[in-house]
Amino acid sequence: MERNSFCFDLHYLFDLKHKNNALWNGNEGGVMVRVYNDKMDQVISFSRTKNNDKIIAVINYSDKPATVKLNSKHQKGTYQELFTKEAITLKGDDVFELKPWQYMVLVK
């Protein structure tokens, strides 16, 4: 499957949901915590944590590119981006370039 394929993304998301405690349903999963950013009208960002599992989602829900700065001081650490497998280290005020409709899922 190609990375640009919606099925490709769903495959990885479903696999993550079953393996990562933070994404489990109800009390078995982690609570969604908003990660504030400087483009709240264009980008939604949140984290979920349960036991040793953590995810951070950053979603550009607009048809315009976004340069977004996350207030990620409570999420510091090294994560792996779910789709690209790239290691990303959050340091506190992290800036990301997102294409229209692009999303990132950081996994720890």
Structural write-up:
This protein has 108 residues and is mainly beta. Helix content is 13%, strand content 42%. It contains one helix and eight strands. It has one helix at residues 6-19, and strands at residues 32-34, 43-50, 53-60, 66-71, 77-81, 87-90, 93-98, 103-107. The strands form two sheets. The protein has a six-stranded antiparallel beta sheet, with no helix packed on it. It has a two-stranded antiparallel ribbon with strand order 4-7. The protein starts with 5 loop residues before the first helix and ends with a strand. The model has no long low-confidence stretch (mean pLDDT 88).
Listing every helix as H and every strand as E from the N terminus to the C terminus, the arrangement reads HEEEEEEEE
Q: How large is the count of helical segments?
A: 1
Largest sheet: 6 strands, antiparallel
Mean pLDDT: 88
Percentage of residues in helical conformation: 10-25%
Name a few traits of the molecule.
mainly beta
Structure at a glance:
The chain contains one helix and eight strands, in the order αββββββββ. The chain has about 110 residues and is mainly beta.
